[in-house]
Design a protein that fits this description.
4-stranded antiparallel β-sheet, 7-stranded mixed β-sheet, mainly beta, about 50% strand
């Protein structure tokens, strides 16, 4: 059974940093593009960043200069380093794994940016 388990969320002040982790219990990890999405209260879920097995990345405009996605293929773990956090980054952050035919989601981890 596929599982994606996020960790690393929490409360941080504006300008601070957090590192999210997503541990995947998944076969053929190399086939999956991994991603981070977020959903703020009252808003739709939106893309934050994705990374292919080979390391090609894609970022939302809001994340390009502040966030870094990476993956450790040996440990089947995906990371999201978030720096210079803003109030508007407050959301539940979800890990995503997808191929052309399958897609899985984690349960989400709350990130709250507040002074």
């Amino acid at each position: 059974q596929v599982q994606l388990v996020e960790s690393g969320g929490g409360l941080v002040q504006p300008g601070g940093s957090l590192r999210l982790s997503c541990a995947a219990s998944i076969g053929f990890f190399s086939l999956y593009t991994m991603g981070w999405y977020r959903q703020a209260p009252g808003k739709q879920r939106e893309l934050v960043a994705t990374i292919t097995y080979g390391g090609s990345t894609n970022y939302a405009d809001s994340a390009k200069t502040r966030f870094t996605i990476s993956r450790d293929n040996g440990n089947k773990t995906t990371y999201l380093q978030m720096n210079s956090l803003k109030l508007e980054d407050t959301a539940v952050y979800y890990c995503n794994a997808r191929t052309i035919s399958r897609e899985y989601w984690g349960q989400g981890t709350q990130v709250t940016v507040s002074s």
